[in-house]
Amino acid sequence: MESTADKDKGQPKRTIKTIAKTKTKIPEQDPHVRVTNFSEVALGYTEDQALAEAARCIHCKKPTCIVGCPVEINIPAFIKAIEERDYRRSYEIIKQDNILPAICGRVCPQESQCEATCVVGHKLEPVGIGRLERFVGDLALKEGWGNVQEEIKPLGRKAAMIGSGPASVTCAVDLARAGVDVTIFEALHTPGGVLKYGIPEFRLPKALIDRELRTLQKLDVKVVTNAIIGRLYTIPQLMEEMGFETVFIAVGAGYPNFMGIEGEGYNGIFSANEYLTRVNLMAGYDHPGHDTPVGMGKNVAVIGSGNTAMDACRVSLRMGADNVYCVYRRTRKESPARAEELEHAIEEGVQFHWLTAPIRIIGDDRGWVKAMECIRMELGEPDASGRRRPIPMEGTEFLFEVDTVVYAIGTSANPIIAQTTPGLEVNKWGYIKVDENQMTTLPGVFAGGDIVTGGATVILAMGAGRTAARGMLKHMGIEPPPRPPKPELGRVVKKKK
Questions:
Q1: Same fold, 158-254+413-475 and 256-411
Q2: What is the CATH class of 256-411?
Q3: What DSSP string runs through 236-304?
Q4: DSSP run (H or E) holding 419
Q5: How confident is the model at residue 484 (pLDDT cuts 50, 70, 90)?
Q6: Relative to the CA of 160, which of 126, 144, 236, 267 has its CA 20 to 30 Å away?
Q7: What pLDDT is attached to residue 494?
């Protein structure tokens, strides 16, 4: 069989000067059409488009893109397999480190992770690593490559996962493959965590999540839904009465934050979590077909400018709002949203009010929101986040007529687990303290994802789940399987601004 090295013989070396300068464009729904539906916006690469983008990788001797990936996927190897049209091998390379490629290819912020450290990106647009990962993940789902039943030797050991988001799923799969009997406890009525309730259908279809989660069924991982740990059972009960030797806490950080301003008790005020859960997970977009009315009005203000805020704005448009306003106290430059999500929101008609902050919400005599008083802001010196601090400008107050307000200014740790688990230490913000193996202050109890870091990314949560799985196996006296070998990694050099 001809080797890769043989194929490369006689071929001119690919360099920055010989490749396409920009990423291969990904097909998308027209903004005027997509704003009327919940179908996926980005349509994914065709085979020819994937091959064109893969041809932009120069296969560095010391690839820094791997360093930028929280789970260290062998990116050059999976791209090389695409170039050779060996798509199944490309999928198998990705799956060594990432069990959810079709999901991560859609929602991970590659521009601040693997693509941020891509050598090509120092002079040109970086290689579209996320788009290529999605192409391979989608093809794998279509062809059923992940449907192979794995042979596993049971060890007779038990582990519990609390939550069923990306951190738990990753941890559960690694443990199950090692022979551990794994049970996932999920508070809601369906597994998937933030992937299901927090990300709209037009960014991440629910059917795709369900197909990716079939990996759990093939590994005989049990999933118990409608089970709030800390209420139905406590962690001490799981370990002392139910026989679980080790527990992984990955409940996310879904406790909503508000501003504490006057009028936040009026009807028509939502946290982004509640709003998106009603629409995403409970089919609020199909009322009365599904009995989950959302109760929003026609003029919606979303406070904040992160990815969740963009989701809330774009969902509101699709739910029939006449006007959707994004209200943010800094400028577009400081917006924490992904550039792609921000651009999509602008294309779809979201109206942005930069350097604007709410100071009071006004209601009518029936107790419903009718307006929001705001003040203009200016930027001062950088604060602890590195962004310039917003400062109110006296005398610039004005009224903003709205009938719905959605808060998307971040979330905090839900205190239920900490309150019902003696000896479990948390920091001053309520996030669980862990060591380098993701183990908490309680032996055998591990934690990862947003409940440890605060709101972060899907792939970072998956990385924590993988680390926790290795720690949990060691805790049970089981040698973790060796990690797949990687090429010699390069040193990441930050780009000059």
A1: yes
A2: alpha beta
A3: HHHHHTS--SEEEE-----EEP----BTTTSBTEEEHHHHHHHHHTS-GGGTTTSS------SEEEEE-
A4: helix 416-419
A5: confident
A6: 144
A7: 57
